Amino acid sequence: MMQFMLLFSRQGKLRLQKWYVPLSDKEKKKITRELVQTVLARKPKMCSFLEWRDLKVVYKRYASLYFCCAIEDQDNELITLEIIHRYVELLDKYFGSVCELDIIFNFEKAYFILDEFLLGGEAQETSKKNVLKAIEQADLLQESQSEDWGSLPNEEIL
Amino acid sequence: MPAPIRLRELIRTIRTARTQAEEREMIQKECAAIRSSFREEDNTYRCRNVAKLLYMHMLGYPAHFGQLECLKLIASQKFTDKRIGYLGAMLLLDERQDVHLLMTNCIKNDLNHSTQYVQGLALCTLGCMGSSEMCRDLAGEVEKLLKTSNSYLRKKAALCAVHVIRKVPELMEMFLPATKNLLSEKNHGVLHTSVVLLTEMCERSPDMLSHFRKLVPQLVRILKNLIMSGYSPEHDVSGISDPFLQVRILRLLRILGKNDDDSSEAMNDILAQVATNTETSKNVGNAILYETVLTIMDIKSESGLRVLAINILGRFLLNNDKNIRYVALTSLLKTVQTDHNAVQRHRSTIVDCLKDLDVSIKRRAMELSFALVNGNNIRGMMKELLYFLDSCDPDFKADCASGVFLAAEKYAPSKRWHIDTIMRVLTTAGSYVRDDSVPNLIQLITNSVEMHAYTVQRLYKALLDDISQQPLVQVASWCIGEYGDLLVSGQCEEEEPIQVTEDEVLDVLEGLLVSNLSTPVTRGYSLTAIMKLSTRFSSVNRIKKVVSIYGSSIDVELQQRAVEYNALFKKYDHMRPALLERMPIMEKSASNGPTEIVQTNGEAEPSAVESKHPPPVTQPTNQANDLLDLLGGNDVVPVIQTTMPTKPASAGGELLDLLGDLSLSGGPAPAPAPSVPASQPPFLLDGLSSQPLFNDIAAAGIPPMTAYSKNGLKIDFTFERANPNPNIAVITIHATNSTEAEMTDFVFQAAVPKTFQLQLLSPSSNVVPALNQGTVTQVIRVLNQQKQQLRMRIKLTYTHKGSAVQDLAEVNNFPPQSWQ
């Protein structure tokens, strides 16, 4: 299974963190700091895999964002690269040509999409269409509820 | 109260902060506002506030005061609230805090909610961060949802079940019924998550594994459909249909086929099909091939399939994509033990990977290269590996050097090649070589007798170039100390002998002593080397001077050595040649090399020589000189005997008796025999008395003789030459007893004329078994520097049939070769 996924910028700023193993806040911060440093130190010609503690780390850079996953020993590194790619495609479809700013300003949506794609460190849906459909429906539900309840219109809730 | 600032607004504001301090100020202000808003129990904006809190948490600021608010959001009926609430719970809460248990009831309700998206949120949260207690409470709900016909929920429930099993393995049984028709689903999401669930169960329980083996045909069918089916836009990735599912199925097949012939056979065809038909131009195809190879190697596949798998890995090695090369090297490393020959075919590609730019690839290529070295390819491989050693990162050098030594030891085609390889490693990566290599190398060099001259010459030349690499310097000084005479006499056969004088050699060694680059250990080595040369070179005065200078060195180790060596020059000069003679061939013991053998003898002398540096074979000196003084100028030199620890006192008395019988003026009892270390390792006796070590050069040709034969006791002498000092004869006595009663308390003593020196080592035992059933052996070493005819007086004492027996004899029938 995937133990955690981190998204960070080239300056090392964290944009998303999803943990599938229980760790204290302090430990998470330490791991994040260490891993960000290690990955940012890698040269462009190096391969996308590295060994870190007892895990395998798979990372890929898309524009200004690094997508970094830690998987266990028996997991397939190459398919993990495909998982990362699939997630980027989902974000891209949802936001329409996604860029880092989209993820900064709509981080909660990035999480929602991730949670429709992965669950407990494993892929739950392999069809791009189905994931996006589910998100769409959930968004609609959010909107329709707010209309029914006569509260703030959806764009203004958060 | 104005509405709290919106999330996007806050993000925008915080991003305008130019310094960390400014950002912190903004955050603190906002946190205060949020806190008061929470206090007011504001329902409308709670989710906005929590969302902002989550943003600030991601920046690294504390947000624990929002934990309870998350729970309130989860409990709300609004979907937005639930969405943010569950997100907050997953980010801010974890199972270590008791607070999280408050979620359990909400989750339970939401698992039964009428809206599937709410149920989905609950399943997701439980599957990501559910603690064992929560899992126990909610497992029943999950199990129910696993049986639903709603595929959206079923797939989530399957992964949630995986999490429950991971947290509480005992609950695995309860999910078994629900797995019955999971694989008959058409929905890929459900199929994928079901395969994950089945994998988890099979990995954890051998019973489950055997139970699910019957699914192999079904899995094979599903995989086949994926490969054969036409284009399916929904699941297509670069022309491959649902690679994620394919990979998971292959992994499950691996687990089911392992150690099971039938299952392995059932999946043979499909594996071959996947291996040959999968498109390899993109990463996704290679991902499937990679998983296929892992499966083929792990199950009981037929050899043709295995070769196919290795060939795929070989093709991977040639791929431009470094990720693929990395993965190939990792897999080959796993299979090199079991499919050695197949991997050998790709040796040249692997060796090329040593030149790769990526550090991880280089390391794997190095490990794999060492695994592939064998007697046939050693020369070629070593060339590549040495080249690698030259140019690799310092982190690799130690491992690579050790690997080279190991491989060289196992497969060296010739001694010369071996020595050359070692030299190359020492000169290129000398400082990275492990400490234990130095004694191992010394031992190797000692044992390559015919290469001594060549070795010492090469090492000397290397020293002239560079004295900074300590292991090289240590080995070199040891060799120069031992074989300096060969160096100066220009005896090298293997290459052009160099012309070097004794003074030049001593210059180099003295240079090591004073150099800043030399560590204390190295200095010790060079001082001892200089000392050893005093018996091999003629410039003894110069050596004496050096040694006396270091007698006042600040370094205690050096000082002690120098003082002892000084004493050797002054009081014990007659012992010096014997002490500093050439080292014998060292038997390799399992744990360490040369150090073991020498400690046993060396302990008799109070020498503080380091264990790493084998001291020359020593003799107990004190007693001999006392005796000489007492007896003053006689023809016979008394025995210096190492006795068994049980009888030191009586040995002294008997010694006196021996001398008395030979008509010498008596003297007071000599000092008792020096204490031999209590733990006499059998190695000493094995090594020296029964299997002489010095026998390879000049042993042949000296016939054994019977020295004594009376009353059933027979004593035979066998001879070896001490290698390489021809002045020392090593005699082994063999005492046998042909009577019917054994001889106990057997003691053998010997004395030689004054021009000789004699050392008697410990006997193998003091009981000579009856009826020739065994032998007592003992080693005598005689130094015959003046090459006079060897004569010996022996005295035997033993108890036989209850009475003490004592006898004296002269041995004059030594064969001429033993003393010429």
| Apparent shape of chain B | elongated
Strand content of chain A: 15-25%
The count of strands of chain A amounts to 7
Just name the CATH architecture of chain A. 2-Layer Sandwich
- What number is the mean pLDDT of chain B? 82
- Characterize the main sheet of chain A: 5 strands, antiparallel
The 3D shape of chain A can be described as: globular
Radius of gyration of chain B: 41 Å
The SS-based structural class of chain B is alpha+beta
Specify the CATH class of chain A: Alpha Beta
Report on this structure.
The complex is a heterodimer of chains A (158) and B (820). By secondary structure, chain A is of the alpha+beta class. Chain A has one domain (2-149): Beta-Lactamase, CATH 3.30.450.60. Chain A has helices at residues 25-40, 77-95, 100-105, 107-117, 128-148; strands at 2-9, 14-19, 49-52, 55-62, 65-71, 118-119, 122-123. Chain A has a five-stranded antiparallel beta sheet, with helices on both faces. A two-stranded antiparallel sheet of chain A has the order 6-7. The longest helix of chain A is centred in the last third of the chain and has 21 residues, at 128-148. Chain B is α+β, with helices and mostly antiparallel strands. Among the domains of chain B are: 435-580, no CATH class; 705-818, Immunoglobulin-like, CATH 2.60.40.1230. A six-stranded mixed beta sheet of chain B has the order 4-9-10-7-6-5, covered by helices on one side. Chain B has a four-stranded antiparallel beta sheet with strand order 3-8-11-12, covered by helices on one side. In chain B, α9 packs parallel to α10, α22 packs antiparallel against α23 and α27 (502-514) runs antiparallel to α28 (520-532). The longest helix of chain B has 20 residues, at 20-39. Chain B is elongated, with a radius of gyration of 41 Å. The model of chain B is unreliable at 590-699 (pLDDT under 50). Classes of the chains: A alpha+beta (158), B alpha+beta (820). Chains A and B meet through β2, β3, α2, α4 and β7 of A and α1, α3, α5, α7 and α9 of B.
